[in-house]
TrEMBL record:
Job of this protein: Involved in formation and maintenance of cell shape.
Signal peptide: none
Originating organism: Clostridium saudiense
UniProt cross-references to Gene3D superfamilies, sorted A to Z: Rod shape-determining protein MreC, domain 1, Rod shape-determining protein MreC, domain 2
Keyword presence, Chaperone: no
Coiled coil in keyword set: yes
Taxonomic placement: Bacteria, Bacillati, Bacillota, Clostridia, Eubacteriales
Coiled coil: 66-103
UniProt gene name: mreC
Record keywords: Cell shape, Coiled coil
UniProt name for this protein: Cell shape-determining protein MreC
InterPro entries the UniProt entry points to: Cell/Rod_1, Cell/Rod_MreC_2, MreC, MreC_beta-barrel_core
Family: Belongs to the MreC family.
Length: 280
């Protein structure tokens, strides 16, 4: 039995050495084969681990980016609000500059008066025709019956003046009568008063127009200066229609004022440079 055991041992040793040699030879000559075999076993596990890490990274990146985007949006919203405020301020200053420039041009053409700027701080009654409260009064040189205008045209006149405020009634009020004339015909017989139509439009009516007058739609109506109350040739409005009055001996015209009474903010009180009696 000993020789057999020795032969078996020798055989095992020889085979082991041969097998080891084959392995070493394979590693040197074609290591990719072994790598491929090992990789085929390890690859599924690597994929699972890689995918899990990738998902975790994506979630982490999402929260990081979300916070960053949120912060950027908040910064952009703040900048946008700031720009909108600047735009509002710019438009306000632009409108003020336009008004002041127009008033300067008007004052250069009418140098017998000073023009006192004032702001509307309230309403005298339930609607526009009842008048405005302005922030200038007798302390500023404002007196009853002084005329109030904007660069667009005639607003009305001061009907009451206290130390720090005054009441201005507009040409839309039926109690305000303005001696007027038609620019195209130079007729100076018209009297303009406020009127209310069924559509609540801000209109006035020019009456006492001669029956043979050539007044027509589109004509410009100005102050005539008669009576000394209103300075001459202040723009009032435009004729929108002409008809014969109920008596049948005169004409009357509906006038749309140039001043937009729904958008008034700043006004100018016309102050004579020389003291004159403008009425009580």
């Amino acid at each position: 039995m000993k020789p057999f055991k020795n032969k078996l041992a020798v055989t095992i040793v020889v085979l082991s050495v041969a097998f080891l040699g084959i392995i070493i030879f394979s590693l040197k000559s074609n290591s990719s084969v072994i790598s491929s075999g090992v990789g085929s076993v390890i690859s599924p596990l690597q994929k699972i681990i890689y995918n899990a890490n990738d998902k975790l990274k994506e979630s982490f990146d999402f929260f990081i980016n979300f916070s960053k985007v949120k912060q950027e949006n908040e910064e952009l919203a703040a900048k946008n609000a700031e720009l909108e405020n600047k735009l509002v301020e710019y438009n306000r200053m632009k409108d003020e500059n336009t008004t002041l420039r127009e008033m300067f041009d008007y004052s250069q053409a009418n140098q017998n008066y000073n023009y006192l700027g004032c702001n509307i701080v309230g309403y005298s009654g339930g609607n526009i025709s009842n008048g405005y409260v302005i922030d200038k009064g007798t302390n500023d040189g404002v007196k009853k019956d002084m005329i109030v205008i904007t660069p667009q045209g005639l607003v009305g006149k001061v009907t009451k003046s206290e130390s720090s405020y005054s009441i201005v009634q507009t040409i839309l009020n039926e109690n305000i009568a303005v001696a007027s004339m038609v620019e195209s015909t130079r007729e100076t017989t018209g009297i303009l008063q406020g009127a209310t139509d069924n559509k609540n439009k801000n209109l006035a009516v020019l009456s006492n127009i001669p029956i043979d007058s050539e007044i027509k739609e589109g004509d410009v109506i100005l102050t005539s200066g008669l009576g000394g109350m209103y300075p001459k040739e202040i723009r009032i409005g435009e004729v929108v229609s002409v008809e014969i009055d109920t008596v049948g001996i005169m004409k009357k015209a509906v006038v749309k004022p140039y001043v937009d009474f729904n958008k008034l903010e700043g006004l100018f009180v016309v102050v004579p440079k020389e003291e004159i009696n403008i009425g009580e």
